[in-house]
Amino acid sequence: MASRPLFILYLSLILFVYLLIVTFYYLNDTLPTPLPVEIKPTNEEIFALQDNVRIPFRTKMECDGYNEFRGIPFEQLWFWPSVRIFIGIWSVADKYEIRHLIRTLNLKQRRNLAGDIVDFKFILGIPSDNNPELKLKLKAENDTYGDLVMLDMVENMNNGKGYYYWKWIAEQLDTTRYDYVSKVDDDSFIHFQNLALNLRPLTRGHLYYGNKSPHSFFIRGTIEVLSVDLAHLIASFPFKKREWNGPEDVQLGAFLNKHAKSLNTIGENCLIFTDPRIRKVRRKMWRPWASPNSIAIHWLKDIRAWKGVIDLYFSDDN
């Protein structure tokens, strides 16, 4: 009689080991293989590929944008109601030259908009080095152009700037004037009219729009577009370091997925992309060429790299 419980124990142990083995092989076959960590190239490596090289350009992308995929050709976007957009361009205090170039290009774009409204400001944190000369230069720049916003925090990219930016949007910006608010990197060219056109058919509420990381939950930081209600949602929560310390785009996505009762996440992965010239060092978000319908070109980290954008979208021939 004593051998029967022992037999049952052995049988249970064998069954348990079998289940462990089956579970291991099932997970090994079904879970995605982790991608290798991408080593970011230096700015010098990037610019070496951009210097005196034209951005490849064709009349149509090799892929379909979000609206085109849904059956709305680009030409039909002009017939949808116009939109109002605010763009906050993240910058740092000493980047005077790039701000001046972006400002010049953006003001020209604004004059050519067809019914849409796109406003912009440069978003900075407080410089950490307490340089009196730097403060005077920033004051002179803002007195001249009136387009600098100094957030109430020490300058950083990934330690809370995202929270304080969206809080500033909700509390200091007259959001009744806009349908959408966005964050943009200062190494990104944004085509104002194409952005507005592609937002026209979309919802004005609970929208989270941009280039979406595949198999993930967040929009990449090249350009993040939110409907106004989501900015107010962020501002309604107190700052928590654990929620906002880390890559700002990842943290924003995590926050919205956790706290938004409804979230319309739309990936515009065809028309928002990395500079086609730098494929050798940056494949993430890469597209082989730009087109007249492109929304954003990212990784223009040297001011001279912007010449390719100017040649495409601001020359007398275009």
Automatic annotation (TrEMBL):
UniProt entry tagged with the keyword Glycoprotein: no
Q: What is its EC number?
A: 2.4.1.-
Kindly give the membrane topology term recorded for this protein. Answer: Single-pass type II membrane protein
* UniProt keyword Glycosyltransferase, yes or no: yes
Q: What are the record keywords, sorted?
A: Glycosyltransferase, Golgi apparatus, Membrane, Signal-anchor, Transferase, Transmembrane, Transmembrane helix
Q: Which residues form the signal peptide?
A: none
Q: Which domain of life is it from?
A: Eukaryota
What class does this enzyme belong to in the EC scheme? transferase
Q: Where are the transmembrane segments?
A: 7-27
Against Pfam families, the record matches this protein to: Galactosyl_T (PF01762)
Q: Where in the cell is it found?
A: Golgi apparatus membrane
What are the record's GO terms for cellular component? Golgi membrane
User: What Gene Ontology terms describe what this protein does at the molecular function level?
Assistant: hexosyltransferase activity
| InterPro entries membership | Glyco_trans_31 (IPR002659)
Family recorded in the similarity comment: Belongs to the glycosyltransferase 31 family.
Under what name is this protein listed? Hexosyltransferase
Phylogenetic placement of the source organism: Eukaryota, Fungi, Fungi incertae sedis, Mucoromycota, Glomeromycotina
